[in-house]
Specification:
This protein is about 45% helix and about 10% strand. The protein is α/β, with parallel strands linked by helices.
Length: about 325
Amino acid sequence: MSNARACRLEKEIKAMARRRKSSVVVEETCVKKEKEVEKLRSEFVAKKTTPWSPTLSGINLTIKKGELLMVIGRVGSGKTSLLSALCGEIDKCSGTVQRWGCIGYVSQNPWIRNATVRDNILFGMPYDRQLYKATISACCLGPDIESLPNGSGTEIGERGVNVSGGQKARIQLARAVYSGADTYLLDDPLSAVDTHVSAKLMKDCVCGMLSGSTRVLVTHQVQYLRYADRVIVMEDGKIVDIGEPDEVMARRDLSAYAGENGEKEEEVGEAMDENANMTLAKMEEEEAKYMSQRELGGLVGAEERDQGAVSKDVWMSYMQACGSIWCASQSLS
């Protein structure tokens, strides 16, 4: 509409110029219409170049080294977009994003390779026995590895078809933990697991093994906000509140952001810890069998191929399928 009006005003200005009526009123009218044309043109160009509204706006955030920052908000409020912006995966309309060190990113949708459990966790890094055991324990993967037919050597199918959603989420989390990054961006890894498992992940992994690193955790589990150094509340792509957990809880009712899990995180119990210790003991026996288990647990075998000339039996079968010797001779000539 603005472009059409600008074109119409330009035609009126040209018509006035052709009449050559040099009166003060005509000159003032032309000047006003020229200014209006410039304004309409600029509005049209602005709408044409930016036909969408920014996903995030007004973000002014500084994260301290070693801080645990939790991000909460309703679905679609921009939590995942904030992590993507910190990774540099979103184009900036204005402003700057500065990062320090190596970043470990745990996405909301787990990405799993068609490889063994161990290869999915190592992800090309050298194998460190103690670090691997500590990572398995912190990510609550011990009982799962024990239940697999070949332990860590069990091959995961395409897109993780032979593991559950919670197992895929913890394998992806273990991959990030094993990498030893400086900053961890965790996009709601607690929502895919049970309540007692999420409590142990929060205690042993996020606040345990990763305690010396900078962590940005997106979560709907408001019962864990007390572990955070600061809490961010997001709405419509903007940070509407930020501060220490007690301050934010005093200013806002956070029950609307709560997930389905209740407040049973204290019911971790000693049975799970004992089960983890038994699993780690069994992993000691698994080390010597790992290479052979990789061969036994493979889902994809090596491709078979024959070399050399085509045998006479194959040609005879082809001739019989053609229905006549003449047809076969035509194909051979």
